[in-house]
Amino acid sequence: MMALDFVINKGITPTFIWGSFDSVLVIGNLRYENVNKCSCFTVSAHQRAIIPVEDQKPFLHSAYQNHSKGFHRDINMLPKPLTSIDDSSSASDGSKVRVAYQGVPGAYSEDAALKAYPNCETVPCDDYEAAFKAVELWLVDKAVLPIENSADGSIHRNYDLLLQHKLNIVGEVQLRANHCLLGLPGVTKKELVSVVSHPQALAQCRTVLNDLGVDKVRDQDTAVAAKTVAINCVRHTGAIASSRAAEIYGLDILAEGIQDDDENVTRFLVLAREPRIPGTDQPYKTSIVFSLEEGPGALFKALSIESRPLKQRPLRIVDDSNHGSSKYFDYLFYIDFEASMTEPRAQNALVQLQEVVSFLRVLGCYPMDTHV
Fold this sequence. Notes:
This protein is of the alpha+beta class. The protein is about 25% helix and about 30% strand. The protein is built from ten helices and 19 strands. It has helices spanning about 1-10, 110-115, 130-135, 155-165, 200-205, 205-210, 220-230, 245-250, 295-305, 345-355; strands at about 25, 30-35, 100, 120-125, 140-150, 155, 170-175, 180-185, 195, 215-220, 235-240, 250-255, 265-270, 285-290, 310, 315-320, 325-330, 330-335, 360-365. The strands form five sheets. Strands 3, 4, 5, 6, 7 and 13 form a six-stranded mixed beta sheet that branches. Strands 10-9-11-8-12 form a five-stranded mixed beta sheet. Helix 1 packs antiparallel against helix 10. The protein is elongated, with a radius of gyration of 22 Å. One of its GO terms (molecular function) is prephenate dehydratase activity. Its main location: plastid.
């Protein structure tokens, strides 16, 4: 297990989750493949070209720039979310990066998109699947989607979608939560009887909500909750959402930073059709996924991490003449390590890892976001 020892000795940090995919990867003179021959680093010839768009240097975005004050007065004018079957949109004309995110205007995912590309045109999508497809169909240039939260763990659905689609990770965004208690103009906190928001936001603001003695009402998204309060105009109902959602939907901020944990951070991935060319000009991170023929035991002992079964082939039967037959789960392991693919140590680790795995795919090599 030389490759795994390398990972530990070099301080490479592992993460994990479950999912499935079949692919072939070519990096320089290295080739990793399995039976389905799907390339994660190519775009098929039938796809139509668009004018290339230069990546913009990320910086911490402090205000929402795409909506002016009072835009909430006609909520129907807000952009309609794309669905997973929507194919009626034009590609970017090159003047702005078009970035897909899940949710409606005012969602934290849109905040993350604006942090990555401050001058971008954000494109809301109904669900994560629609955001992936929007990039694949050339409807947008990038997608920014959450992958893990420091308080609530991994977003399993997006790990699955990473393997089901042929997109590449080209960046990451670390976004600190700043939950705000919102209400209709003129309403005070004492008037609130109920507060609506996403279940995770409600759980992350439990102390303040318990002190107020309000009913907690679940909604699909924080920004959707703010929009609902604005549309229904019920004075005794508040919402937990971002400060920008308050501006978009014309709500007052009754309290700011109400989360229990001030260090609550969500990590987002920036996805694109083409991979980013690795460099050494700044700290880089590489994300990989692999599977082992021998089962989860070897990796569990080496890295002491949790593992999850691969859904499409959950059980493997092994015959042993001394002990009879036994069954165990097939697993996929996701690992992020802090190194560029241009570095010899990263290349050596992948070469050694290839010797012991049955499947290996590099999901992307990209600059780390060190500004939280």
